[in-house]
Amino acid sequence: MLTNIKDRPPKIDAKIARACHADLAQWYAANHRDLPWRRHPTPYHVTVSEFMCQQTQIATVLPYYARWMNSFPDWRALAAASDATVLKHWEGLGYYNRVRNLHRLAKLIVSEHSGNLPADSHALQQLPGIGPYTAAAIASIASGEQVAVLDGNVERVLTRLFALPWNVSLPLTKKNLRQLAAELLPKKNCGDHNQAMMELGALICSPRHPQCPRCPLTVICRGKTNPEQFPNKTKTLTVKERQTVAVITSDGKIWLLNPAERGRWHGFPRLPLFDETHMTKGAPLTVIHYSITRYRVTATAVSAKFKHHPPANGAWLPLSALKKIPLPAPHRKILRQAPLP
Ligand code: SF4
Q: Quick one: average pLDDT of 288-310?
């Protein structure tokens, strides 16, 4: 597999343009998933869906999206909510910087943009949590701007369609693919076209076992004889991490660290790690495994007691109040599995 990117983006002839416009549009109209944000593609709905769907499967997002819209139907409702309430609605979705940025964005839209999200993709990129992909998705879907999206699905479709050996981990490859995606844009209905490219990558041109005979682009596809060799990318190395988590209870209460001010669990109260200087270890309670970014974590939960006074960076909480506060999903899982008094 070649990794240099001297190759220039391929030429788009009439046959390619017809397949990528008419054939793809027809396929999308007949096969797209009926998703709630597609029924009402307002800037707010599209933005929330784009934030939620980053790094997350759509099936996982759906119940979160429904609950979110019930509680925060517009920018103003979201801007007025407390940090803890907003975090609680995101609990379990992971990648919590997304929700912090979405909340900051709502406050900014209300305070500085009269409750209206800017329509232009360049202006959108100046706002919290909105990069080139999200800006292009919102601007094309909600406002019809002629701007191409490039996410993992589109990268896969394009590299297969044109049998491009470029290493998609390189910034120059992203730039070339973005240019290619832009050249494939139709003159109108760019939001639908972008969604069709992403939907094709999600439903047909999947990472493993793409369904080429069912693909609307199969007649022009140059990579269909061996599609799984595309895209060429550098593998991300994973890091294994082991930790011991302390579950400290007393008189119907549990001791939790105060909400973190930064890092992995920013904004969340959480269980402390076991610390043998200040705690004594009791019985093992449960073991859970979870992944966060490139880390594969094995967390062993043990019951524990403080040797002296509890430190000042936490507080006792009635066990009955646990359901009402946001907690990191792995800690919620520990507390579900551990036999609490
Ligand atoms: S023909 Fe196959 S490899 Fe080519 S775009 Fe369609 S699904 Fe992907």
A: 93
